[in-house]
Design a protein that fits this description.
With 217 residues, the protein is of the alpha/beta class. The chain is built from eleven helices and eight strands. The chain binds erythose-4-phosphate.
Length: 217
Amino acid sequence: MRIFLDTANIAQIRQGVKWGVVAGVTTNPTLVASEGLKDYKSVVQEICAIVDGPVSAEVTVEGVDAMLAQGRDIAKWHENVVVKIPATAEGLEVTAKLAAEGIKVNMTLCFSANQALLAALAGAAFVSPFVGRLDDIGQDGMALVKEIMDIYKEYDFDTEVIAASIRHPMHCTAAAKAGSDIATVPFKVLEQMMKHPLTDAGNARFLADWRRVSGQS
Ligand code: E4P
């Protein structure tokens, strides 16, 4: 399973890339707005210059024609840009058209197996089931990821599954066990994935013992 960072924060992306584990980035209008950033295009282009992998940028308009026009424009921002389109009926039409033009689409806000099935049939490169938001309303978000993986395997779909709306490290483990192609995670969760108190305590002890026998203070 690859890891994407789910953020528009440049410092976090730089750090994740330094750790050698970030294979892509997903953004959305809320994440960009939370950075207080105005120009979506320059933010996405800056991210593309840092990360060598898919960078999702979402349309911010409604209606087939407007989403199509904006999607085509976003796709020109950088060769690694993936256009995020909502999993609606209009979004499906837009996805089919953009995919036919060779533009990579990430169907976002996916909350059902049928939405994911249609996303694949329309030619989406990625589909993003929102695990945490389903958990929030008392449904099993990871069960949806498993369901989509089963369906995609059954029919050999090329669409890659991005487990999204990840809230904690256990979501990452579960997504990996479910066979998800990718999990897109907030920076805090990426930090939590590597953190273990026994590692820290063990390392501190090793270093202290070494300092003692080697005469270092
Ligand atoms: C995915 O591409 C979305 O940006 C993201 O995972 C949404 O997560 P949230 O439910 O924490 O807002």
